[in-house]
Specification:
With about 300 residues, this protein is mainly alpha-helical. It contains 16 helices and four strands.
Length: about 300
């Protein structure tokens, strides 16, 4: 039997059972806030599974504002998984220029190739089938199932973990714990509205550094707020932050420079170090080039003299 949106069965948060009336209030207040406050984003105007997949991959570790500029042009160039697969990885990597984390472009092309070759060009609805698609992890699969197919599941990101840790649990939650709780909170038949509202509440109100508690629709039931915000932030106690590695002078910076050059032209072996921005370190540049070839980004063009080109 499917759980109704007003079920009386308690929901567990860690070792604690949430009262059914609290669950009902949480859903009601969140959905009411979302109806008037959800951001108007281009990928929210479609239920096409391929478009949802594209948006989810683009949004990984990337600010929403940057993705807005890329989403429409990408779908105009590759309106379906089959179109993307036929275009080849070089075309996808070129169009990805400036969006960062270029490996995602390659993974998206691999996803498209698998969808076109193994699923008739149709993004699968079933979770097990989705998880066989290269580059589709648990969170992306859940996002597709919720945002494209309307299934009652919850994709969980850092924003969602933060809201649940502070408001519902009142203590640090692991990703697995937050996922279990979020899935139980989703009201039947309204996963799209619920999950999009959760994302936006965490991104715009229940933020990491300076949460805007007076604007939060859940403030009256928030465990952290009821404690006067005086204790440790429950989200931070449950999700230790990893320091980002330095970008300047890193291999990632050199890879990005080389890929940007390859988007425009081929690169001879003698010019690899210059393209990477390390004119005095040709061995390091050769290693980066070898990595790009091994990962499927690039290949050595046939003929003599040879040159590196996008694959």
């Amino acid at each position: 039997m499917r759980r109704s949106a007003t079920a009386r069965t308690p929901i567990t948060s860690g070792t604690e059972a949430l009262a059914a009336d609290r669950v009902r209030r949480f859903r009601h207040q969140l959905l009411g806030w979302g109806a008037g406050n959800r951001r108007d984003l281009p990928w929210r105007h479609t239920r096409d599974p391929w478009a949802v997949l594209v948006s989810e991959v683009m949004l990984q570790q990337t600010q929403v504002e940057r993705v807005v500029a890329y989403f429409g042009p990408f779908l105009a160039a590759f309106p379906s998984a089959t179109d993307c697969a036929r275009a080849g990885p070089a075309a996808v990597v070129r169009l990805w220029s400036g969006l960062g984390y270029n490996r995602r472009a390659l993974n998206l092309h691999r996803s498209a190739t698998a969808i076109a070759g193994e699923h008739g060009g149709v993004v699968p609805r079933d979770e097990r089938a989705l998880r066989t698609v290269p580059g589709v992890g648990p969170a992306t699969a859940r996002a597709i199932r919720s945002f494209a197919f309307g299934l009652d599941v919850a994709p969980v990101d850092t924003n969602v973990v933060r809201v649940l840790s502070r408001c519902v649990h009142g203590g640090g939650l692991t990703l697995a714990g937050a996922q279990k709780l979020a899935d139980q909170l989703v009201p039947t038949g309204r996963s799209w509205e619920f999950n999009q509202s959760m994302f936006d509440l965490g991104a715009t109100v229940c933020t990491a550094a300076r949460p805007d508690c007076p604007r939060c629709p859940l403030r009256r039931q928030c465990r952290w707020r009821s404690g006067g915000l005086s204790g440790p932030d429950p989200w931070r106690t449950g999700t230790p932050l990893r320091a980002q590695p330095r970008f300047a002078g890193s291999d990632r910076q050199g890879r990005g420079r080389l890929l940007d050059t390859l988007r425009r032209d081929t690169v001879s072996p003698e010019m690899l170090a210059v393209a990477c921005g390390w004119p005095d370190d040709p061995q390091r540049a050769q290693r980066i080039a070898g990595d790009l070839v091994a990962e499927g980004f690039a290949e050595w063009a046939p003929g003599r003299p040879t040159a590196l080109q996008l694959r």
